[in-house]
From TrEMBL:
The keyword Protein transport applies. GO terms for biological process: intracellular protein transport; protein import; protein targeting. One of its GO terms (cellular component) is membrane. It holds the Pfam family SecA_DEAD. It comes from the Eukaryota. This is Uncharacterized protein. Residues 1-659 form the SecA family profile domain.
Length: 1698
């Protein structure tokens, strides 16, 4: 026995030695697949490798390849066809086949005698990562590749450098989209991700899915076209119309109706039948109507489609005298129509092409159902930073989530509106490649699948892909029984049959035969329905742990890695079909195996076979059945013929699909030809622009514009791509001119879209030499018809103006920013209206498990960004409003303690001025009580003083800044029904120095608006129609409505002020209003002055109560009432006597006159006469123009278009009388009481608001005269008050005003500012939208002048520094002190002082003794190296694009100054970003600890961003020098020697950097620990907010410290220099260079090494920063928050979340 074992061991040893030799031979010389012996050897070695790597300890038998696997591998390896496809039944081990084929081909050589590169396409990233990275023990296959020394990787990473590294491997796994993405990035953009990787061979798993189901799929690289986001207005308009249409109405009529509304809004499109509203008799005169239509077309007023063309030609119409006035009136109203849709001009043709399709898709969106066709859920792949729920398409074939896919034709957008998700822009095809085109780019393809499909499908693959197909028999005989199919006629019978089938399988009469089953459902909704039905029907018979659902690919399959026992039910979608390996237990196998129940008919045989293939695997028994359902009103079950007809229908549909697939392939071929031409042009253009030395931003903008044109052209010609190839061949000859692409000279940029033009102009505006060109581009956009769509053009035009001669451009500057503000305000109104319309049109659906309010959040975020730009525009021109309440807020700061000298000065002054002293004591008492610098009473007086002294003014803007001012005033007057000369009244009022209240009061005196609500109410009260409510608690009519919680508010002043008592409220039993209060006997009822509530119950529903105003004032006191007044609703209650109301005669306005019809645009005198006569005839008015008692709706058949405008004029003039008559009907209809809303509540305030919105007047604004402010505020005696007032005024002054002499203007990115705004959650997508619109920079102005104190302080520091160095040198020469002391205290300290002085002066920073002392102490401690700091500044100076020393210093320290400002506000805003994630993990406790760590996270994030950015720039700058050194070294030593030597040097560089980086981390940790020891708590004391804030404040200086940040940069510089020095020291070769050099390898070597340096160093920086983050969080937890101790799970979760 021992001899046999010994002989066996010797045999095994020899076999292993032989295998090693073979593998080494293949590695050296390559594997020859054409040699039969080599083929046999490889299969033998691979089988041996499988035995050694896949056989687990404890297995009863050795794991070996099956014969079918060997046959498949040999078939694929020896086939001469370009594409070879094999069908291997499910469960037959396709993964080992794919691996074997990949390894064999990877060992082969290509035509260049290099090892072949193999790409393996899997169905998803999970499988790719599993097979390429995991060991066999963990379910992967990496051990097999390692056995053959074949490198393997995957391209699933989101990071480019990691994917670049992966493509160096011999075998790369990934899903098809990943390969296509990197292929396009390389081929089109030249990113060189794949390097020199050749397209030798691709191995495709589930090849039928890739070539048939997804063969015509196309991958697009993201290219956003500016302006596509503006289509939202059209989507919302269509969706609102579709949703508001009656349910079940005729779809065709609905579509035509909505289409007409869209075209009317967009173009003013009218139809021939619309002409009947001009002249009703045209209805019976078709020839006359046709003649008018033809006349309008001939005169080019409209086009043949009825679209309005030339608005300026309307008034010149000359058709027939009696009809011309009516035609002009009608068409003018069309031209002045209210617009809801705003589409840029360059997208109008795009809208025309797709409008019909969008309307169809909007109606389809109503029919598509959640959890059937799509799901609404968060992105579970972690590829998106947006945590909001999204619309995710479910692949009906596989059940997989398609996160990155969208339905086209705006269908996806309509579903997003339907579900309230964030709206995304519609994508157009631009940079793309189809699945079929990409796969055909490989020299050879090998594919395996469990199903190659029907004969039709196989024939298609054979014809299209020139493929050879094999069907491999199973290793074991199939033992599968298919039960008879049943098709039911009702859903209830269908569900009952499923329950019965389930019970028979898991609970048979003979329990010893119990089995398990999988129920396949068509949708997630069906899964949920069937699961609930099973639970209800079987009840306790079915254990909760024995029923499983599998519907989403992020969910873990319940039986992954373990065997399925008996008695289990799995309810799943197709997700459990393809690729799911269900292992069964021995007991289940003996009982008959797994049972499959298909509850729907899959759309092809392959999906059916994949589902049924989950059973009877590897020789095990199994069974299956179809339980189907098709609605029918009669009977319970269909006969057998129905099953056959369903399969025949499926077969017919499949043939149709293949036919369409063939057509799609022809179209894709044409598209690919055009795309290839574009790629050539794009590359040439890019190179030409580089040769012209254009800036990178300009090149990007121009190239993006080319892609815009290409995408729109391709969309336009999509229908023509189905023409013959000869057409396309002819067109390709003139491709560039036919497409309209610009020439390479780029002398003219008018071809660019407006947004791209703004982007280019903004870039040019930053260059002083290109201001004129930028100005010309922006003016072209502003002067275009779409000017109102591009606020960015106005905003950045102001940026250009302020850089030029500002004094000359000032009026234009103010005018352009006012226009910008108006456009932005309109945009805000538009987005708010979008939300209102979508909210009203939201479909009534079953609520999702997650709250969907993303669309609301999106609108909120956009509004915040728009408001931010409005604030910027107002700050620039000083138009932001200021009031006494603002001054009160500014005066809330606590009064600072005065210094001893100042106290002495005040004391001496008080002795001299006793009365002044008394006044100051009184004010001081007021301020100390209120803890304010300025108390409220004093603020009112100070504000009036500022107005009196003209420091704050309300003024009528001049015509220089508002050229059409007088026309706007007249328009506003017409809208408010003012017949007096509004312009003269405004000039009179604003000619005096009034506050806003005084302005409003003086306008009221002029009685410009005679009929107001107040006047109406007072008139009725005077006539006795309105009286105080009798017997109630509100005898003075005035009441106050408050929230119930206001009764619990403690008064701020206890003196003469008490809480409101609920007992004294106006109770429902004491008082009612509306119809509930109607007194039939006296014919009266109670009414509200502002009827926002229908009755008292409506009030109570909103948790509000009512008090008498007199009671509230008496209870609270006047001061407390004034303070809380803004929280109260003021109203009036009165008893309306309908009998007396009827006798009241109202005289608020003059009678109607014919000239009033001018307001309705009825200009012709003859037409006015006709309308006047018709009004009298219909008894609407009498002959004197008074409103008749029985007026009715105006009817005018002569011209129906007049009816509504005339009625609006009548309603405006007789509004008081109309309200009165409506109130008389209130006893029958209580809604008539709301007619009082027709009367303006605060008309003069509305008037002033409209004038202010039109920039005709300005509110209370601070004067631009800074000298006047200084002069007039001297009268304020209290110094603190005076300084507070001056700060208040300067903060609201125009930004340019105090800086007219010297300032620096620049553009800054908005992102940091926007993220500071509270509650800006998930705002990244909105910021991207503004980036796309070129509206992502804000104008900022920095004062170029600094106070003499800063200069003096900096000069002092410099002098001290020079003196310190001089003393140090003297003492050093005299050997009076040690060198170490001299170096740190005197020499280095002096150099640090000089550097601090220089940076303070050149960067215009404020000198502070605290900063100076801090840097001095650091030098004493030896923690500063100013010499290295100077070197670094010069290094950063070299990195900057513009050689500007001042910019270099700003680059070095600017971030520190930025992050110091408003840190608390930054953290407050940022903390909300993780709020939703916190809610997800239910972290409801320890909020203080949580937010402390969140603040710390963002502090570290800023710190890390700075380090990463500077390191990247440093490496990029040195890459040229490194490349030069590498190339030179390679030339001297040869590639082989260079690779070995430089790799060692690189490892040394990385190792040295990592060591120094670890020391750097330790230093920071030590310093942080020392700081935190000052506030370190004990385990029993919880963290308070005060301690948390103090901890952050203590750590901020550490991470913002310039020396700390730059030390790691210096380490990087040192390591790179030593690396280069090491290459220089080995410049002379020791051995002669071999003459036979691989040229390609020689060229590739330096590039590869540079990529390795960049990648490795970047990875190490991230690693070091991650270590720092983890240790800082741990240290702070140990020292302050104790979070890791009190809740370790939370701390771990939070760390992962960060």
């Amino acid at each position: 026995m021992s001899d046999q074992m010994k002989e066996s061991d010797e045999h095994e040893s020899k076999q292993q030695e032989r295998i090693k030799k073979l593998i080494k031979q293949w590695q050296t010389n390559g594997l020859e697949l054409n040699d039969n012996k080599s083929m046999v050897d490889f299969v033998f070695v691979y089988d041996y490798a499988v035995q050694k790597t896949c056989t687990k300890d404890g297995d009863k038998q050795i794991f070996r390849l099956r014969d079918t696997q060997r046959i498949t591998i040999m078939t694929l390896l020896t086939s001469d066809y370009k594409n070879t496809l094999t069908q291997v039944s499910t469960g037959e081990g396709k993964s080992l086949i794919v691996t074997g084929v990949a390894i064999a081909f990877a060992l082969c050589r290509n035509e260049d005698k290099k090892n072949k590169k193999i790409d393996v396409i899997t169905s998803n990233d999970v499988l790719a990562r599993r097979d390429s990275t995991l060991s066999v023990a963990d379910g992967g296959l990496r051990n097999l590749y390692e056995y053959f020394n074949v490198s393997v990787a995957n391209n699933c990473s989101q990071w480019v450098d990691e994917r670049t590294q992966a493509y160096n491997a011999a075998v790369v796994y990934g899903q098809l989209a990943n390969f296509q993405r990197d292929y396009l990035l390389d081929k089109f953009y030249g990113h060189s991700i794949r390097g020199d990787r050749t397209m030798d061979l691709v191995v495709i798993d589930e090849v039928d899915c890739m070539l048939l189901d997804r063969g015509n799929n196309t991958l697009y690289l993201s290219h956003d076209i500016p302006g596509m986001e503006m289509l939202e207005s059209l989507y919302v308009f269509i969706w609102e119309k579709i949703r508001s249409s009656s349910i079940g109405s005729d779809k065709f009529n609905m579509k035509e109706s909505v289409k007409s509304a869209v075209l009317y809004d967009l173009y003013g499109a009218i139809s021939k039948d619309d002409l009947e509203s001009i002249h009703n008799p045209l209805k019976d005169q078709p020839s006359e109507k046709n003649a008018l239509w033809d006349h309008l077309i001939e005169t080019k007023v409209i086009d043949p489609q009825g679209r309005l063309l030339m608005e300026d030609k309307i008034e010149t119409i000359n058709f027939k005298p009696q009809l011309d006035p009516k035609i002009i009136f009608y068409l003018l109203n069309v031209s002045k129509r209210e617009r809801n849709i705003r589409i840029p001009e360059h997208l109008m043709s795009f809208v025309d092409r797709h409008l019909d399709n969008w309307l169809d898709n909007a109606m389809q969106a109503l029919e598509l159902k959640r959890d059937e066709d799509y799901v609404v859920d968060q992105d579970r792949t972690d590829t998106s930073p947006d945590l909001h729920p999204q619309v995710i398409i479910i692949d009906q074939d596989t059940g997989m989530d398609q996160i990155s896919s969208q339905w086209d034709g705006a269908l996806h957008q309509f579903i997003q509106l339907k579900e309230g998700c964030k709206l995304t822009s519609q994508n157009l095809k631009s940079i793309f490649i189809s699945n079929a085109t990409y796969i055909q780019a490989y020299k050879k393809a090998a594919g395996v699948s469990g199903t190659l499909g029907s004969e039709t499908e196989r024939q298609f693959m054979h014809t299209k892909y020139k493929s050879l197909q094999f069907v491999i028999p199973t290793a074991f005989q199939k033992c599968f029984y298919l039960k008879p199919t049943q098709v039911f006629k009702s859903k209830d019978h269908w569900l009952h049959a499923i329950v019965k089938e389930t019970q028979q399988i898991i609970q048979p009469e003979d329990q010893a035969k119990a089995r398990s089953l999988v129920i396949f459902c068509q949708s997630i909704k069906d899964v949920n329905v069937i699961r609930r039905y099973l639970k209800n029907a079987l009840g306790s018979k079915l254990n909760d742990n024995h029923i499983h659902c599998y519907t989403r690919d992020y969910e873990k399959f319940a039986f992954e890695g373990k065997s399925l026992e008996i008695g289990h039910v799995i309810v799943a979608t197709n997700l459990a079909g393809r690729g799911t390996d269900i292992k069964i237990s021995e007991e289940l196998r003996e009982n008959g195996g797994l049972h499959i129940c298909l509850t729907f008919l899959p759309k092809n045989e392959r999906i059916e076979e994949q589902a049924m293939g989950r059973s009877a695997r590897n020789g095990a028994p199994g069974s299956g059945t179809f339980l189907l359902y098709e609605e029918s009103p009669t009977g319970n079950k269909w006969d057998a013929g129905k099953w056959l007809s369903m399969k025949e229908e499926r077969q017919w549909r499949e043939k149709q699909r293949i036919s369409r697939l063939q057509e799609d392939f022809r179209t894709m071929e044409h598209e690919q030809n055009f795309f290839d031409e574009l790629s050539i042009y794009y590359t040439e253009l890019k190179q030409e622009l580089k040769n012209q030395k254009r800036e990178d931003q300009a090149i990007k903008t121009i190239c993006d514009s080319v892609l815009d044109i290409w995408a729109l052209w391709l969309d336009q010609t999509e229908d023509h791509l189905k023409l013959t190839y000869s057409y396309h061949h002819d067109f390709l000859k003139h491709f560039r001119t036919g497409l309209g692409l610009p020439d390479n000279n780029m002398t003219d940029n008018s071809w660019m879209t407006p947004v791209r033009s703004v982007t280019l102009a903004k870039h040019l505006a930053l260059q002083k030499s290109s201001l004129s060109e930028a100005c010309e581009i922006l003016k072209r956009v502003i002067d275009s018809r779409d000017s109102d769509l591009y606020p960015a053009a106005h905003y950045y035009f102001a940026f250009v103006l302020i850089q030029e001669d500002f004094k000359e451009n000032r009026p234009k500057f103010i005018q352009i920013l006012q226009n910008c503000e108006t456009i932005l305000s309109n945009d805000i109104d538009m987005h708010l209206s979008f939300y209102r319309k979508v909210a009203l049109a939201t479909a009534d659906q079953t609520p999702s498990f997650c709250v969907v309010d993303a669309y609301k959040q999106q609108k909120d975020n956009i509004v915040k960004i728009l408001e931010y730009f409005i604030g910027s525009a107002r700050a620039l021109i000083g138009s932001h409003y200021c009031s006494a309440s603002n001054l009160k807020e500014a005066g809330k700061e606590e009064k600072k303690e005065k210094t001893f000298l100042k106290k002495a000065e005040i004391f001496l002054q008080n002795i001299r001025l006793e009365f002044v002293r008394f006044q100051k004591e009184r004010k001081s008492k007021c301020k100390s009580e209120q803890k304010r610098i300025i108390c409220p009473e004093q603020a009112d007086k100070l504000f009036e003083l500022l107005v009196e002294k003209k420091c704050i003014t309300c003024r009528l803007n001049d015509t220089d800044t508002i050229p059409n001012r007088d026309a706007i005033i007249q328009q506003v007057a017409n809208e408010h029904g003012i017949k007096k000369d509004l312009k003269d009244n405004l000039e009179s009022v604003f000619g005096q120095n009034f506050t806003e209240k005084q302005v409003e009061k003086n306008l009221k005196k002029e009685n410009l608006i005679p009929c107001t609500r107040k006047a109406f109410w007072e008139e009725l009260r005077k006539e006795g129609a309105l009286q105080a409510v009798k017997g109630g608690l509100c005898s003075q009519m005035n009441c106050v409505i408050v929230l119930d919680s206001e009764c619990d508010v403690e008064p701020s002043s206890k003196l003469n002020s008490k809480k409101l008592s609920r007992e004294n409220r106006i109770k429902i039993e004491d008082f009612q209003f509306g119809l509930d209060s109607f007194d039939h006997k006296n014919n009266c009822l109670n009414v509200l002055y502002n009827p926002i509530y229908d009755n008292m119950k409506d009030l109570l529903k909103q948790n509000k109560i009512m008090f008498s105003k007199r009671y509230v004032i008496e209870r609270l006191g006047k001061e407390e009432y004034r303070r809380r007044k803004e929280n109260f609703e003021l109203n009036q209650i009165a008893q309306l006597n309908l009998n007396k109301l009827e006798t009241v005669t109202l005289k608020f306005c003059d009678p109607l006159e014919k000239d009033d019809f001018t307001q309705a645009n009825i200009i012709s005198n003859s037409e006015r006469d006709c309308v006047w006569k018709a009004l009298i005839d219909q008894q609407i008015i009498d002959s004197n123009g008074e409103l008749s008692s029985n007026y009715q709706k105006f009817s005018y058949p002569e011209c129906p278009a007049y009816e509504q405008p005339v009625m609006r004029v009548i309603a405006r003039i007789f509004v008081a009388e109309i309200v009165k008559r409506q109130w008389l009907r209130a006893a029958k209809d209580p809604k008539c009481l709301k007619a009082i809303n027709l009367l303006p509540l605060k008309p003069y305030r509305d008037l002033l608001g409209d004038l202010m919105a039109a920039h005709v007047i300005s509110g209370a604004r601070v004067t631009e005269d800074a000298t006047l402010i200084e002069k007039e505020t001297k009268e304020i005696e209290d110094e603190d008050e005076r300084e507070c007032v001056r700060r208040f005024l300067k903060s609201r002054q125009a930004i340019y005003a105090p800086r007219m002499k010297k300032y620096e203007i620049f553009l800054d990115l908005i992102e940091m500012d926007i993220r500071k705004i509270p509650n800006t959650v998930n705002i990244s997508t909105e910021l991207h939208t503004f980036d796309l619109a070129a509206f992502n920079h804000v104008i900022d102005i920095k004062d170029g002048e600094r106070s003499w104190k800063s200069y003096l302080g900096a000069t002092f520091a410099g002098v001290v520094g020079v003196a310190s160095i001089g003393v140090g040198i003297f003492l050093l020469q005299g050997k009076m002190l040690s060198f170490g002391f001299n170096k740190n205290v005197l020499l280095m300290g002096g150099a640090s002082d000089i550097l601090y002085a220089i940076t303070t002066i050149l960067t215009h920073s404020k000198f502070t003794w605290a900063d100076y002392t801090r840097q001095r102490l650091r030098s004493v401690m030896g923690k500063t190296e100013p010499i290295e700091m100077i070197k670094t500044i010069y290094k950063l100076y070299d990195l900057s694009e513009n050689a500007d020393f001042r910019k270099a210093i700003n680059l070095a320290i600017g971030l520190e100054r930025w992050t110091r400002q408003n840190r608390d506000q930054i953290n407050k805003g940022r903390a909300t970003l993780l709020g939703r994630g916190v809610e997800k993990i239910v972290l409801v406790n320890h909020q203080t600890e949580l937010h402390f760590h969140i603040q710390l996270h963002y502090l570290l994030q800023d710190f890390g961003s700075f380090i990463l950015g500077k390191t990247k720039k440093l490496v990029t700058k040195n890459l040229t020098e490194i490349q030069k050194a590498l190339t030179q070294f390679n030339e001297l030593h040869g590639t082989k020697t260079s690779q070995h030597f430089i790799r060692g040097k690189l490892n040394k560089l990385i190792s040295q950097w990592a060591t120094e980086g670890q020391k750097w981390v330790c230093e920071i940790i030590d310093e942080t620990t020392l700081k935190l020891n000052e506030i370190a708590g004990t385990g029993g004391i919880p963290l308070t907010q005060e301690m948390a804030n103090k901890g952050i404040r203590l750590m901020e200086p550490i991470f913002n410290d310039y020396e700390v940040r730059m030390k790691l940069i210096r380490i990087t510089v040192t390591c790179i220099r030593e690396f280069l020095l090491g290459l220089e020291n080995h410049a002379n070769p020791e051995d002669p260079i071999a003459k036979n050099i691989d040229v390609e390898e020689f060229k590739r070597f330096p590039k590869k090494m540079m990529a390795d340096i960049d990648s490795e160093l970047g990875r190490q920086v991230e690693k070091i920063l991650n270590i720092l983050r983890q240790q800082i969080h741990q240290v702070t937890s140990d020292q302050i928050s104790r979070l890791a101790n009190v809740n370790s799970e939370m701390f771990t979760t939070l760390s992962h979340l960060m």
